[in-house]
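step=encode ok
step=design start
structure_in=
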């Protein structure tokens, strides 16, 4: 009697890509990242970009809307519009950080923050460090309910974190592309960092400038690092997380040298990390709940495996 060996069909390229994009993660990780992302909004409004509110007093003929602003026919910012967006965004972000009505409040935060950025960046200055963070806000609105400490795996949450990760790495890659497009290969040997240190440097930056060739070497490192950043997805998970931690260290070094911070981008980078293990995130969520005027819901014990 003959036997027949049945081989399992190999998944198609589309199937493997779908499995990668929707790779499930613990719901607690999504909840922690959501709390971090939404609590960044009040910090941004009150501390990092309060100058955006002054655009409501700027003459309308100075308004040069970005491409999407033109496509959507967004109105010229006025004092009433800017103040209304500010109040609504502050209120909805605090409410969204509690985890309640994740789709409704998440969508509201994403749309309001996008408008805040249109107002901010339509007067000649566009910050590239907010791309990954904006993608995170829109993606989180699709992630659905998730509770802190919840071990249940979620594909929707995995997709939200994955596209945020992709946007964060695209920020690096496209930054290098812009350097080479507008500065050419000569950018690596230019005096760009030297000029930045002279203009807004620190004691650490001055020390680096005194080392022959140090700033030029840093420029070569930056371009190579940014161009190769998408390769991080090919690395094992443990190595990937270690590299992400080193990325945070890189940004600390940049801030120490030239006082340039990329806070929204750092929030997006946190999508790579196992945030469900960080108990302080839960504390932040409870603070947001109290500020929003709600009592925190009872949290279930994390599931355990035998």
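sequence_out=
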């Amino acid at each position: 009697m003959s036997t027949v060996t049945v081989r399992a069909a190999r998944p198609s390229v589309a199937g493997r890509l779908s499995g990668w994009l929707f790779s499930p993660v613990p719901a607690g990780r999504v909840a922690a990242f959501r709390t971090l992302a939404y609590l960044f909004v009040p910090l941004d409004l009150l501390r990092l970009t309060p100058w955006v509110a002054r655009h409501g007093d700027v003459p309308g003929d100075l308004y040069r809307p970005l491409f999407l602003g033109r496509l959507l026919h967004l109105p010229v910012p006025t004092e009433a519009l800017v103040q209304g967006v500010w109040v609504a965004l502050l209120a909805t972000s605090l409410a969204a950080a509690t985890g309640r009505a994740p789709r409704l409040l998440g969508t509201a935060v994403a749309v309001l923050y996008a408008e805040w950025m249109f107002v901010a960046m339509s007067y000649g200055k566009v910050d590239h460090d907010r791309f990954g963070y904006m993608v995170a806000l829109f993606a989180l609105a699709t992630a659905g309910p998730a509770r802190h400490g919840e071990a249940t795996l979620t594909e929707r949450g995995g997709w939200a974190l994955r596209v945020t990760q992709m946007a964060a790495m695209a920020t690096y890659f496209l930054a290098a592309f812009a350097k080479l497009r507008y500065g050419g290969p000569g950018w690596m040997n230019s005096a760009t960092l030297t000029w930045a240190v002279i203009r807004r440097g620190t004691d650490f930056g001055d020390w680096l400038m005194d080392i022959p060739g140090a700033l030029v070497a840093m420029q070569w490192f930056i371009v190579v690092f940014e161009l190769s950043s998408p390769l991080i997805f090919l690395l094992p998970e443990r190595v990937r997380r270690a590299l992400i931690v080193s990325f945070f260290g890189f940004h600390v070094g940049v801030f120490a040298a030239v006082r340039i911070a990329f806070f929204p981008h750092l929030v997006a980078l946190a999508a790579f990390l196992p945030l469900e293990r960080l108990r302080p995130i839960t504390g932040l969520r409870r603070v947001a709940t109290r500020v929003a005027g709600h009592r925190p819901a009872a949290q279930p014990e994390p599931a355990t495996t035998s």
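step=design ok
step=annotate ok -> The first strand starts at residue 25 and ends at 26.
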